């Protein structure tokens, strides 16, 4: 809530502003929906209530009123988009009003609680008198239905909707008088006529509100006001928990709380997360003024609120359970596409089962109306040579591809302007694909993006464009013509050919240039990449998980040398199988090295024939339409990272995705930061059921495709998730998912860097079900989020009492006795709660999906929704929730001592007791100390702890004699001078100079013109003063009396005129001087702002370059370590074979197995010792690289701050120089005598405000730069030097201001 204006909430959501024409109503003809009845149009009268909740349809013949909940209207169509039935077109009775085609007067409404166009999604047809009337009703009803306010009504708003339905929909005309039958009210709130207890409760509630309460009585609609209806509601519900809440907050007997008590209540339950500064006193006044009605005056106490008014506030939009601002478009839409979750659909055309369902073009319209931004099209050849959409290898009826494309063109951007992705599963021939391409170009036109944006070319390391960059654009995801594709796993480029369908991988040597160091990388290092484990990030170099071994036997057994003593194959056979001559070069597994026995140094060209078969149907016509969503076969995270093509997209079924998450969750997160991925259901989901989308959102997968035709729990979660951010179909991922070199692992139950861990406690008090016949026995509270947060998935609460309208789940008055506790939420932005209410037999009643980041704590009502996430009935849950910062048990005493220093003084006075833990942490993981100095941390968690029981000297170290890990150039420390000599550094400096030159040019011209005018006026002022000197020679004019001045003015007429002229010129000089100083100040301020902006971007680029440089060094060290480890394993196998050939022939047959095992054990131990030595060298290099990275970033930070301070001093000196020059120009010896006016002008003109503004601006810039770069902590000597420099600048600035003031 914002301060200043005392609004209850800051959301822009507003109720519908209903047109007067729709409130008044109009005549129309309704076409019958049932085909079994006689096809005769029905004369009706249509009108909408004044808040736009319900569309009322009065049958002019039977006088029956049908009520349509506008929130359930999916779409309205007229004109060429309307679909009149064939019988209606032939019916002459439908020809009413204007003589125009029937389609122009026709309105079709799609209405229901599902997206599937069958009996549950009704198609309602009306015919109006004129096309203008039809268009007005079409546009207005669609606007009302799409209003986010209508989809997020509070409990009080839902009661208003039910009241509107009663006074408008249950009305009967009897003897020219409108009445409401009590029987109709009973039928509305009690559908079971045999439930006499519930009926009696309804009648007693009517009696309490002074309304007719006999079963056959009639009620005047004008008397049944909303105030009386609310009293009727409170009597049905009882709401004893509200009375207890009032008593707890100060009202023991009167059931009234005053303003001070209300203020304390609001302040206690307010959620400080995002609420800002709130004037609680004014807010309490506003609430009392808004909710205290005239009907409560009898119990009104000045500045107080009664129980019913207090309940209104608790049910109102002002006390909504979620932050209403999150329902608007509140997220930044300028990030790359890969940084968003995208609402996605699987097999969009299907209406039901995957095998025996039906296809429909209407499904595409309905899915797009939900805000879905990725839809699927399975395309095959039809018998007549046209493309058609059909589920392949099933008996499901096909639909026309062209019809689907036309429907997509109509609805692609009807509810959201952000880019739409069409995922093609293309099984068409080349000729049909050419037709497809022509249809796409013809129908979509400029909507389809056929060329990449100039700002985002399809190149390596270029991120994807943002949703704002692609507004109102359609992207095609279709396989492309690859031809002969030359790829080097160490190269940076993919060349796509135009002929052929096979793929070849040419492993080449690569020249790597990192700063001043150059080295040649062997192609073989990429042959050992494991696609499931490779991660080039310097934060998590790929190493085996950390293990500790108690003896050498455990350690050597943990290393796989590709040999098994118990194998039937001999060592020689094992070696022969791994020789180069026997390698199958056509096996794709060779590229991924899935078999550890295959060699890791192969340089031949490999043809992937399998890919050639898959890509054989791709054509140039369709390939030319594909750009930012280019589908590729997934071949491993390491390969994808090496290629670094953000526009490539891979698809996974849910089983493969789960396997990747299980093995490489962190790598999956990094992969999804760079490029898009799509997940779809497994093929065995015949009935179109869905999987839990959260398991893939938790690793950052963007397009998690679901079956929209099935409104099961996963689909409800999906709809609830994308309800926020204005239902635009895009949700920005939390920050840990958007870090290129992040270390975020969603499977680790540890705290995340720069994320506040929270704990959530909930107390479910009661449930209100105004229209519900069966008891809502169970409420399931489920937590969804990253794997660590979702470990405690579900809490089931059972009702204790049920009075027919309200269920009591917890009657304990103690706020601290909370039943549902989620003790640690590591990533609140990804965590969500789902409340599901069901009957005892499991029948669904309602559900609500609430992200934790939008949850507001305190006493709130949760509005329950249907399966399509729309609030229909006035069903609510009353809860109390508390959100707190999570504190680990080890730190609770410290936090308590900080919060209560007087009570916990003894804890503060003995901090040594916590020191061992800190030291222990440092010993366990030295890299943790780097978390406070840089955002890029190199963790050595995977360092093995070898045993020293094996001698590492002598012949056992022959394997590491010439290792490259001894080369110190692998950890070369990059200096600032090295960076300054780089080409990009010099180019950026030249760019800045050009920008400053251009920016200063225009202002320099204005300054020159103003300076020339200033000098001319100054010369005129000097001339006038010299004229006065001829007449005033004996006595200065400032020493003359009034009589002497009059005498001289009478004696010398010229003197009086000259004095007047002198004064006018002096004033002009003053204004010119002020203008000149303002222009100079504007120039320096503009140049400084330009330099600050450029400096920020420039140093960010330099920092990225440095991080990339050390990342490549770490990757290079990783590659060498992996290569040489594999080489040692090969040498162990060869040595074992040679020793066996030499020694076994001379051994006796009985001792051959013993000798064989002994030889094998000796060589394995020697290999293990060699690998341990390699690991020692490897870890030493990684630690040196980490230290060098920190030192380079520290040096860069010092350079950055020095440059900022020098810039400030430079501009301050220039301003002072101009000021001095103006003083010398104005106050020289010739004009000091009679220039008091100019003296006054200069004293007030400069620019204390100017200098103060400039200083504050630059100081704030310094602070921002310092905060942004706070990741590097300077040494103590550098900090002292920085403080001395700041003091010098401040002293210089104060001296300048004092001199100006004295002058």
UniProtKB/TrEMBL annotation:
Cofactor(s), names only, from the UniProt record: Ca(2+)
Residue ranges of the region described as Disordered: 909-930
Residues annotated as domain PI-PLC Y-box: 622-734
Keywords: Calcium, Coiled coil, Hydrolase, Lipid degradation, Lipid metabolism, Metal-binding, Transducer
Main enzyme class: hydrolase
GO molecular function, one term: phosphatidylinositol-4,5-bisphosphate phospholipase C activity
Reaction(s) catalysed (UniProt annotation): a 1,2-diacyl-sn-glycero-3-phospho-(1D-myo-inositol-4,5-bisphosphate) + H2O = 1D-myo-inositol 1,4,5-trisphosphate + a 1,2-diacyl-sn-glycerol + H(+)
Positions annotated to bind Ca(2+): 347, 376, 378, 425
UniProt name for this protein: 1-phosphatidylinositol 4,5-bisphosphate phosphodiesterase
